[in-house]
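ugh ok fine here u go
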Amino acid sequence: MRLRLVLAVVGRMLRLFTVGMVGPMGLAAMDGAWRSFAVYLGCGLGGALVGTVMSIGYERPRLLHRSEAMGIVAGTWLATAVLAALPFCFYGLSFWDALFESMSGLTTTGATVLVDFTLYDRAFFFWRGLIQWIGGLGVIALFLVILPRLGIAGRQLFFAESSSAPGDAVSPQVRDAAGRLWLLYIGFTALCTAALMVAGLGWFDALTNTFGTLAAGGFSPHGLSIAGYQNPAAEWVLILFMHLAGASFPLQLKVFTGQDWRGFFKDEEFLVYTAVMLACGVGAAAVNTGGLPGLDALRAGLFQSSSLISSTGFASEDFNLWSDGAKMWLLIAMVVGGCAGSAGGGPKVVRHIITGRLILREIAQTLHPRAVLPIRYNGRGVPDGVMRAVVTLTTLYVGFAFLFGLIYVWMGKDPITAFTASLACIGNIGPGFNEVGPMGNFSGFSDLGTVLLTFQMWIGRLEILTVIALLHPHTWRSLRWQDPPPAARAGSGPRG
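structure:
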């Protein structure tokens, strides 16, 4: 792995990321918050300078190795999280709390350490929401649009953070497909913002909550999340758009551009995803009411189930106060997760489908050892390599969630807080139960606990294997600063 190449590309991406600080700068100027204006201006200029220094001497690579692709993806997430955290430090957060908040935003987790929301201005909440929006589909699209201009094929990087589950390729023309995904993402953002404004929210609340919705992130400028608005119409709007945020964007692109208008009805993953969301929402509402739920109870159940299965993390009620039976339905939604190719987190629905079919095949194979029983998904056979990757990722996901949960219990947290916090961070879900419930926060963790939770969000967004592969001895043995000069590679240099 050529470290100079990785750092140079990360530097260019970091420099590009600083453009986003123009938004909170403009809002701070509108509000006359000149100290905040200076903070974002200084952080933007500093980030641009660091990115420029990192990218000095960049040359277009003829070939990008897999370890380098993974290093660029992981490094970009980490570097942008550090840069995004710097403005938060000027608002009084410690560095580790600020990094937790920015990583939570960029990975679209939605977990927070904020306690008193009245301490922060609109520029703070705009930046906090914007980094979530960028971290949704935005970063994926940047990899596909910007990096080809640097001489790097977008597909070489897309594998490093995409699901290993089978699915439709975005398009043979990567840049064209990424452009259309961007238009879909921006279009949904505008539509959701407009709908929330019609429902009664002001433009700022509508826009910042839309950032958290389309990114499946869940950051809201209100301290009580969506529950603070007491707006049923807005909740119905958000149920729809949260559900879309957790669905495959390439699939939606096919449906809404007319390539396959029946795509939603033919895609196994979307059908299972929708069925689980409805079952969990109705189930939780029925348990809460002790029978057939009314419209208000149904809205509350569907809102929470849609929020958790898509990993958005918004809350229209404090479901921490719900009965254990209702919370079990919500836990199912948390564990299932969104669809591959979406902004949603969690293990992904398609992995559950393939894992379930693999288990059923193994049972049948026990009874009929010589039978040839292929596993099919959406009418196509699933290669053994994909099944192996799915089982590996699922095992790592469960193992890491359990391991870190044990660590938090050892640190003094009660088991429900510890294990749901671990699950919420590695699955990029946001809220858990008890101390880290929807109206709670993660400020009660020690600095070490905050660092571990931040690490979980990072590896969870990168789907764990990317980070583990970078820590493998083979990667370290191949580490070098850059390629040797051509003469040295050809053996024509001076001999000692």
